[in-house]
Amino acid sequence: MQRASYLDALLPSQRGKLHGVVIGIKDIICYKGHEASASSKILEGFKSLYSATSVQRLVDAGAIIIGRQNCDEFGMGSTNENSAYGAVINPIDDSVVPGGSSGGSAVAVKAGLCMASLGTDTGGSVRLPADFCGTIGFKPSYGRVSRYGLIAYASSFDQVGVLANTVKDVATILEVIAGPDDFDSTCSNKATEDYSAQIDGTEQKFRIAYFPEWIEHSSVDPEISTQIKNLIEKLKRDGHEVKPVSFNLTEYIVPTYYILTTAEASSNLGRFDGVRYGFQKSKGSDLKDFYKQNRSNGFGKEVKRRIMLGSFVLSAGYYDAYFTKAQQVRRLLQEQTALIFRDFDIILAPNSPTTAYKIGEKTKNPLAMYMGDIFTVFANLTGIPAISLPVFKHSSNLPFGVQAMAKRFNELSLARFSQRLMPQ
Ligand code: GLN
């Protein structure tokens, strides 16, 4: 209310692009003076000493940051059930999950608690909850938005993303938060474009690729595959060039992602030891015991699983067999993707093999949970921008969307295509 009164008193000439816009932020993005816990006990009571660049830019543009949003601990999960605060439920059907890891961010937009949310997407964490809750979820190219102030999970994958109800809202927020940042050397020096001003009224005919191996994949719900095929036919009738492209690396995507991200996580999460901030359960009998007590009690089960998996794939003797091999596959994926974008503007795909899972359905089987990420992690492995657009409804009444991807840094083309599919 204080912030709103302050904004109300500004002269029209002083008002920013997001004047009075109410935005929520995933509890993994820092906002100065406010708690940030990554939904983990290990960061209990921690208050940010600085704001993330993305948050600072929202504030500078006149936004009101309404609160922090529940998520899977450190962004590790696909259902928002791995949180120290408890699970989030889907606003459309309370027997199913909202998707994760940015579950709270999707629910808040869907429930009208804010006009948009900032989430983070390391392997689908913005797009999957958008898909399960029926909102738009957008992950920019790696390097398009600064990661400064984003609590790191896997640094070569993490990106800040946007959840909102319209493509125009996404485009407007993107142009505010994107662009070079002295505090993140992996952030690209390319200047931001005025995306929102350029998305309407294009008559452009897009060259669209799709992978039959994905749409026909045995894990995909038949209704999802039929609806996407129908959409492909419609796009053809509308004059776009839509063609199948063979993609033979599908089965390597999920293993590659989980080897590389757990390796990066095991290193990034080494800093949480209870010495300087956050949770400190015990002083321990010696230093080793101190770390053991605090890390064992501060991290949740899934986070511990990933730290151990990551330490394993990086360990002497296994490094070449797992980590190096996965890096080689990542390179192959990037090369194949670059070739596809020589001939196409857009790759069209499902977001997820199924609609939202029942609460508890996948928690006992982490591998089954990981396999649900098959269509989203590709964009993070290759660094390309990707968006989930809520254009379908399942006979079970749950929403689902279609995923569109574009060449790295071609956010404009992706936004234009999205606006054509979901004009508003
Ligand atoms: N489900 C994926 C994982 O658990 C995605 C996470 C994310 O994008 N933060 O790693």
Element pattern in H and E = HEHEHEHEEHEHHEHHHHEHHEEH
Mean pLDDT: 97
Q: Write out the strand line-up for the largest beta sheet, numbering strands in chain order.
A: 2-1-3-5-4-9-10-8-6-7
Strand content: 5-15%
Uncertain runs: none
What share of the residues lie within helices?
25-40%
Broad CATH class: Alpha Beta
Q: Are any ligands bound, and if so which? A: glutamine
Q: Counting H and I runs of at least 4 residues, what is the number of helices? A: 14
CATH fold assignment: Amidase signature (AS) enzymes
How far do the termini sit from each other?
A: 29 Å
The total beta strand count reads 10
CATH level-two architecture: Alpha-Beta Complex
How would a crystallographer describe the biggest sheet? 10 strands, mixed
Structural class: alpha/beta
* CATH homology superfamily name: Amidase signature (AS) domain
Alpha carbon gyration radius: 21 Å
* Count of domains: 1
